[in-house]
Each structure stands twice: as C-alpha cells, then as structure tokens.
Design goal:
heterodimer, A: 329 residues, alpha/beta, Rossmann fold, six-stranded mixed β-sheet, 10 strands, disordered N terminus, B: 112 residues, alpha+beta, Ubiquitin-like (UB roll), five-stranded mixed β-sheet, two-stranded antiparallel ribbon, 7 strands
C-alpha cells in the first residue's frame, strides 16, 4: 500500500495553495481544499478513507468553485458587459457563493426562490448583497426557474449562469476538485460525491479517472421523505443536462437517517462538522470501503454543518420523521 | 416476491397502492407483472420499451442504470423503488423540480 506521498524534497501539501504573500481577495482562496484521512471511520486498516473538505471554501461550500468558474467563464467570453446583472434560481449554497463572487467582481445578483424557502436563507443572501425575488410557493422550483427565465427574457441586463446546464460547473470540478485529488494521492480506487447538479461527479470523476482508470465513481443520492417526493410529479421531473448517468459506476440512494448517522459519525469520531449531504457521502464511502476490502476511497464533503444547526434531527429519536418534510441537500 | 414501492405521484395510476408485490427474477419481469395489473402505471413508467427518462428505478437502493438495467436481478424479499428523477440542491428539492424544458438564459446556453 503506497503512502499518501508527495515528491521527495518538496514540503508537505498545504491545505491551501502556497501564495507569495496574502491572497488579493477572498476569491483567491476558492478551492485547494484539504484532504484528511478518516482513520477512525475506515472499516479496516487496509482501506485508506479520505475526506475532501469543501466546507473550507471561503463561503462555506463546494459551490464557491462553480460560482467563480461560471462567472469568470462568462466574463472571459465577453458575456458580462458592464451593467449586466447575475440572475439564478437558487436558495442554497449556489446563491451564497454567487453572492460572494458578485460582491467582489462588482456585479448585481438576483436570486429567485420559492416563497416558502426558509427566512434564514433569504436573510443571508440579502446580507450578502443579493436581491431576492420570490416565485409562487406552490410552483416550487419549476416556478422559480420559469420566473428567472421570464425575467432574463424580458430584461437583457440579466445573465443566468444556470448551474444545472452550465459546463463551467463541470469544468471547475475537472480542473479543481478532481485535479487536486489526482495530484495529492498516488491512487484512488473509489471516488464518492453527492449527486446534485452532477457537476462534481462528472468533472472530478472524469479527472480522477484520467489519473486512475480503474476508479469507481460513485454517486450518493438523497432519498427524500414521502412528503417531499409527493410534491413532485413526473412532468416536473428533471435530469440536469450536465449529468450523464452512463459515466457513473455506482448510484446509491441514502436515506435521511443514514445521512444523519454519517454526520454524527464524522462529528463524534473524527471531530469533523459536516452537512447532511456529507453524511450521505460518508455512508456510501464506508459501505464501498467495506466492499473494497483494501484500497483508497475518497469522499467529497460539500459543506459544513453550520446551516443545519437549527435542524430537528440532532436530538430526534425518530430521525426520519423529523426530517421527512424538508429538504437537506 | 419482490416489493415495488410506488411514489406518491404514481399511486393514482396504481389504484392508490403504496407498495405492490410481484414475482419475477429480474426488474423487467417484476415491472411487466406490475404493468399488466396496472396498465396506466405501465404507460407512465415505460417509454418505447425502456424506463422513461424521468423515472428512476432502484434495486437494493441502487439505480438499475448503474447495474444491469431492466435485466438487474431481484430475489425474494428484494425491494424495487420507483422515484421521479429530480435534480439535487436545496432549490431543486423544494416542492417540485426544475422543468425539463428549462434552458439557461442568454449567455449560459453558449457554454454547452
């Protein structure tokens, strides 16, 4: 079993890029996140289990990578002339990341979200300088996307990055997340990431597979509670354009209870405070590590646990019931 | 017997059933039996002999598309889960999914 090595003579890899001095803005600190070995969670000493801590990105999630990439790609293509404004349907991490990027680059940002998004998310985005526009609660995401599209069509000022269909999302993970893993480890047998837009799995998966052709790229997919599934019809179904399931080797459902067990395991055994999707990734990573028997498994942990502190599942006896009415990814 | 779990959106086409027991040694056989009993359900989950694009099918908690597709084996006590495909992320999961017809606005489309 090879060590987690670096070329001899070089200093050990830092959690962040070595700068020639301080970063010139917070955006320079996007990416180059640390890998940490989860010795207390590996099923046996024969499996090296690593977590990539994307919560250590400057605004707290992996989305910093794609927000920066989508905006900078648009800038490079001349699509963001002065006076243009960013517009995205999002109430989660992508909105927060875009707000950070927009603030530093001097663009306005409007986030469109259903009226039943939690007040904390709206407040956080407004504090970060984003305008928030509500779409009808009963139209859900469909309504938010349609409203954002309508706004963009009516007013040419707006530019919509649209993370679900933007190849810069995938490219950010290819050049960043995946390259960092490939550069830091001598070998990877299994790569696990949460399935959202598909960007991490497609981009980091492709890059890690280039370095280690036999890698298993595994998706951890949320299994929502019935009340959440019930809000969705087949007609509203959506497969992100950037997602190509044929490029996944495994695609495993993870229940809310399993995700929370993963969050608790990270916190209690590794002192790592991660979000719900990270718990799902750890659940899948440990399961596949057991199947593997011997080798290297890497799990990408998308964010920290901070946004979930007020959630009811921490003390719940019935985790599934406590979580089934809400969305955690 | 295999248990097929029906999502809320498809239960009206399965006479309100949440779970349906069916026999078969592959997903195809199990879903063919379910489809024979509930033709409206079959019409919604199959397209041109394949699973419709916006339906996901899981055996043992794993998508059949990363197993053997409809030829994925099931055994006694297996559970087959049907779910509408949905994009992840907080927004995508809040009451409804992004429309399959949604396209990025000006600028973003040129990145494809």
């Amino acid at each position: 079993m090879s060590e987690n090595t670096v070329p001899s003579g070089d200093p050990p890899p830092a959690g962040r890029q070595e700068h020639e001095g301080p970063a010139s803005s917070i955006l320079d600190l996007v990416g180059n996140t640390p890998l940490v070995e989860l010795k207390r969670l590996a099923p046996s000493p024969a499996v090296r289990l690593y977590a990539k801590l994307e919560g250590q990105n400057p605004s707290g999630s992996v989305k910093d990578r794609i927000a920066k990439a989508m905006v900078e790609t648009a800038q490079a293509r001349g699509e963001l002339e002065p006076g243009r404004e960013l517009l995205e349907p999002t109430s989660g991490n992508t909105g927060i990341s875009l707000a950070m990027v927009a603030r530093i680059k001097g663009y306005g940002l409007t986030c469109v979200m259903p009226a039943n998004a939690t007040p904390e998310r709206r407040r956080l985005l407004e504090l970060m300088g984003a305008k928030v526009v509500e779409s009808p609660a009963d139209e859900g995401t469909n309504g938010a996307v349609q409203k954002a599209l309508a706004m963009a069509q009516e007013d040419p000022r707006y530019f919509m990055p649209f993370q679900y269909a933007n190849e810069a999302n995938v490219q950010a993970h290819y050049e960043g997340t995946g390259a960092e893993i490939a550069d830091e480890l001598d070998h990877v047998d299994v790569l696990v990431a949460g399935l959202g837009t598909g960007g991490t799995l497609m981009g980091a998966g492709r890059r890690v597979r280039e370095a280690f052709p036999d890698v298993t790229v595994a998706a951890a997919e949320p299994l929502p509670g019935d009340p959440v599934i019930g809000l969705r019809s087949l007609e509203d179904g959506y497969v992100p354009p950037i997602l190509d399931v044929s490029r996944l080797d495994r695609k495993l459902l993870v229940t809310n209870a399993e995700s929370v067990a993963g969050v608790r395991a990270l916190l209690e055994r590794e002192a790592i405070f991660a979000g719900v999707s990270s718990g799902a990734v750890v659940h899948v990573a440990r399961k596949l590590a057991e199947e593997l028997g011997e080798g290297v498994v890497v799990g990408i942990l998308a964010d920290g646990g901070w946004k979930y502190l007020s959630a009811p599942f921490w003390a719940a006896e019935d985790v599934e019931s406590a979580m089934e009415n809400s969305v955690w990814w | 017997m295999t248990t097929v779990r029906i999502p809320p959106t498809l239960r009206p086409d399965a006479e309100g059933e949440r779970e349906i027991a069916a026999a078969g040694s592959t997903v195809r056989e199990v879903l063919d039996e379910v489809g024979a009993r509930f033709p409206r359900l079959r019409a919604r989950i199959f397209e041109n002999g394949n699973i419709a694009a916006f339906v996901n099918v899981y055996v043992g908690g794993e998508d059949i598309r990363t197993q053997d597709g409809l030829d994925t084996q099931v055994s006694d006590g297996s559970t087959v889960i049907l779910l509408p495909a949905m994009a992840g992320g907080t927004l995508a999961s809040l009451a409804g999914g992004a429309s399959r017809l949604a396209q990025p606005a000006s600028g973003a489309a040129s990145t494809r």
